[in-house]
Amino acid sequence: MKIITPAHAFGTLGRAVNRKFNTIQVDEIIANVLRLFGQGVKVACEVTCMATDAGYIRTDEDAIGIGGSGGGSDSAIVVKPTNTHTFFDLKNREIVCKPRL
Question: Which pTM value belongs to this model?
Answer without folding.
Answer: 0.86
